[in-house]
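Extended Data, record Probable cytosol aminopeptidase
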Amino acid sequence: MIKINETKNEIKLIGVKDNSKNKLIKDKAGQITLISEDKTIYLVLKKDEETFIEQINSAIKAAISTIEFDLNIDIDSIHSVCQGVEKEEIIKNVYETIAFETHKGLSIAKKEKEINYNLIFKGDFKELIANLEIVCEYINYARDLQDTPPNIGTSEYYAEKLVSDAKDIKGLKVTVLGKKEAKNLKMGLFLGVNAGSAHEPRVVVIEYCSDDSKPKTGLVGKGICFDSGGYNLKSSNYMEGMKFDMSGAAIVLSATMALAKAGAKANIVAVGMFTDNKIGQNATLPDSVIESMTGKKVLIFDTDAEGRLVLADGISYVVKEKQVDQIIDASTLTGTVLFALGHNATGAFSHSNEMIEKLNKASEKSGERFWRLPIFKEHLKQVKKDAAPLADLTNACRVRYEDCSYAAAFLNEFAENKPFLHLDIAGTADKENKGQGVLVKTLFEMLK
């Protein structure tokens, strides 16, 4: 549990710049040393290859994993050593690290004794702490959605859970669209992905408008509860972790719930497109041509490129039915973004320099990293060329490389010339088979 400015704990963690106070202190940047006689953990902070924030985060993680006592963390002592770093940034990173590392989530491990972490500092940071409490709650909420086993985490399950969990948050309007409604809206691409499933599709729509003078933002999340690849079946090594293919939906809906709970000034329609992608007697076949919600015909070259199909109808829904002014999608979309950026950054794609600038400003505060990747004219030309003469677009091109950019070009065709930002989180959504709740912080910063 995280507490603020209480003084009940015997052991404290302080920041120092060297080992001059005690030669037993490990004089290495980012290292912690417990001196039992002092009842003090010393954290050495100095200019190094790692930034001060990276050193602090490493040290807090080490303390959580090794120290089994309630702990006072002296933020002011840490701040006094970290020249050029604002106290607010230190509080934020310490709080977020503790909240993330101590979250037990869906673990069935025996419950351990709860450790109290008491942050001590001078100054008025009430608003910061209030926002941190909410954002960290919904980062962890998104992580729990991500970590849900796929035999439990079906489209129906997520819809029921989100409706139940959102009902007590003031200012939210929650709507669930089923198969009948999707048919009425002519969401042919979404239904085409669902065709082989034993579970009915669900579109979870969460609306939050506390200030209608702000541009209405459509957040669209890929919610593939499990991705087998369909008839373009994945090999076994690529099947691992496919329960995380619904991460985009978990993230955009969690971020919207956080904004509402914080009472942020915002105008948002968040949509989670939930289905699985499986093989069945009615499953969509490769080389099929399916009509989208907008009437565009799409050649299904690869049934394993299903994410862009559900997103396309989700984007069309927020544009046509909700009249949004701008769109952001989040999705574990392509392996090529993972090859390009690894697990170090989320791929960002947009023709709008303004949206990229807003993203960059938000990321400076959230600490989450993004890297802009291109949508060239050549990408759209290829998406159209490989569909001809049977369709307007193809969901996957016949060329080997740049699939992340072809996917972005495909999705951009459904944004109806509105500002559109595509965030490919294939490399950042999960790590070591655990959901990371990535983007919740950044979307909160962008839209609050």
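Summary. Residues 32 and 43 are 5 Å apart (CA to CA).
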